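Weekly modeling sync, notes
Attendees: AB, CL, MP (scribe)

Item 1: holo prediction request
CL wants a bound-state model with histidyl-adenosine monophosphate before deciding which constructs to order. AB pointed out that an apo prediction alone won't tell us much about the pocket. Agreed to run with the ligand included and paste results into these notes for async review.

Input as submitted:
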Amino acid sequence: MYKAPRGTVDILPAEQAYWAHVQQRAAEVCRLYGYERIDTPAFEDYDLFARRDAAGTDLVEKEMYVFEDRSGQKLTLRAENTAPVCRAYVEHGMFSLPQPVRLYYLGATFRYERPQAGRYRQHHQFGCEALGDPSPGLDVEVIELALGFLSSLGLQQLTVVLNSIGCRQCQPEYVKVLQRHYEALSGEVCADCRVRMVRNPLRLLDCKEPACRLIADAAPRISDYLCPECETHFREVQEQLRVLGIPFTLNHKLVRGLDYYTRTVFEILPQREGGQSAIVGGGRYDGLIEQIGGKSTPGVGFATGIERIVLNLKEQQLGVPALPAPRIYLAHMGDSARLAAAVLARSLRSAGFGVVASTGGKSLKAQLRQANALGARHTVILGDDEVQRGVVTVRDMTLNEQVTVPQDGLAAYFSSR
Ligand code: HAM
């Protein structure tokens, strides 16, 4: 028996109301803030993700789905969406549009991770990227947008966690200080952290091992090493958040797993905290577009996993509007009715009515049972006798009442109801 690959799930019809609602809210909040939709391919050149600066990140070293196509080109299933959006920005010359260019996306994202609740090998991200403007106000805009989106779904008690990890000028100085702090304690850290000390020192700060956590708590803080420009930027972000009444918590250990961040980084955590609890992750990435071959261009954005949002909606017992059930079920009895029903279904659909047509030679009782199970509001019954008389029987499934309606007046009858 085949099963969906490990770490992937089928989104069955019963789940679709959640997905439709979340995606519709995402589109609506983006409209309010002027973000336009972009869709990038599900796979990209391997090098777009495996940039020199990204070496040593889990994403590149452990999580990407990498393959060669039949021409020998090395490709990667999209492991995140920021780099693809930046690639599209450069490729399509969006730097000549009024800046910032505000974009959003909804799409499948692939990471070879250890599956668990809220962590999959294929997940779906909604994310926003604002490109071409260095203002701290834009960092605040994307945080506010992400929060507005989550609150519009009814999610409450969200915590915004904020940090600044400096820029290409001040971060290296801090990294040296951090490495020195860890060198003295290298016998006490986990094996992964010993590798991080050399390959990805900032990630030392968010190791989950209890012994490493204590060391990270006592580590020098990057806020003490920010250059004046980064310090001003970070202060302005905080001031604007306060003015807007957006509560946040500073956490000097928040560094994020991707390589490209500069200055502001943030996450949004839901009510219940757990290992995989961040529902939103984002930040500023002022060097990324240059890294992938464009002119030096600032950027800031966030992404959120729709699976994690749906999980939280269910945990908090937050309902979503049901998807519309088919309004009309078309039942038929007898050979000539079967053919006439197909014609009638087509004319009702072209008048804009959703029609589920019965198939096969089921009894009328079985057809009515099916209409009920599907939640149809009306069942149109067509027998050979009705075909001859040019009428149908319309049964109201809620009131259990029946009326006879001329076939050529059926669309008008439903329009009037
Ligand atoms: P990220 O933190 O790797 O950031 O992912 C963003 C969000 O995607 C997470 O907060 C989580 O909700 C969801 N997510 C990530 N991995 C998984 C997974 N394996 N299963 C289920 N959900 C997952 C980024 O991807 C950045 N590109 C965000 C960004 C945009 N930064 C700036 N702009």
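Recorded for review: The pocket of histidyl-adenosine monophosphate is lined by residues 80-82, 111, 113, 118-120, 123, 125, 127, 129, 257-258, 278-283, 285, 301-305, 307-308 (CB under 6 Å).
Action items: CL to compare against the apo run; MP to circulate these notes.
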